[in-house]
Amino acid sequence: MFYYFNGEVTLLESNLAVIDCGGVGYACRTSSYTLSRLHVGERARLYTYCSIREDAFDIYGFSTREELRNFELLLGVTGVGAKAALAILSSTTPDRFALAIFSQDEKALTAAPGVGKKLAQRILLELKDKLGGAAPAEGGISLPAGDVPAASGSALALAQAALAELGYRPQEITAALRSFEPEGMKTEEIVRQCLRAMVMR
Prior knowledge:
Elements: E1 4-13, E2 16-21, E3 24-29, H1 32-35, E4 43-53, E5 56-62, H2 65-75, H3 82-90, H4 94-102, H5 106-110, H6 117-127, H7 155-165, H8 170-177, H9 187-200
Antiparallel strand pairs: 1-2, 1-4, 2-3, 4-5
């Protein structure tokens, strides 16, 4: 129904952001991650998901399309409702969530309030194929000739696959990797450095 709202932030509360678009305030339920990027009085764009039921019409808004996609993926998991999905997204970031699925990191999900071991295992099981599997195929993601190589199953390969799943193109990933030396770094550290390099470009 709504793809995104683009307007002034007029109110921020726990898991709630109100965006004024043309004099109408839209209440968007959201995550702590998105809230941390919003400021009252400033303009913002939230990508939305609408939940329409017989007794309710709820709008969920997120600062990035990646986080919105993660929310939609979580809602597709058996036993995961909007409340649990927001709790998970509030306890992590979009890139760390993707890494948790790739590496089948159960603890990263159970860190969210109300998410137990069984639910975390179900999320990992049902999303591992939708996010491309726990580890990339031989050689990591496909990169043009001459780009940074990655050994199968290595931290670098997992980082490349996670960044690709977040929507970054191979050329962008390669350029970011050339800005630092990833050897010996953990997957999460490589992803963080790449994201920082992309922002600085």
